[in-house]
Amino acid sequence: MIGEQLVANQEALVARAVLRDIRHTPQKARRIVDLVRGMRADEALNVLKFAPQAAGADVYTLLNSAIANAKQKNPAIRDASELWVVEALVDEGITMKRFRPRAQGRGFRILKRSSHITVVVSDTKTTAKSLSRTSQRTQTRNPKRSEKSPLASTQAAKGASN
Question: What does pTM read for this prediction?
Answer without folding.
Answer: 0.71
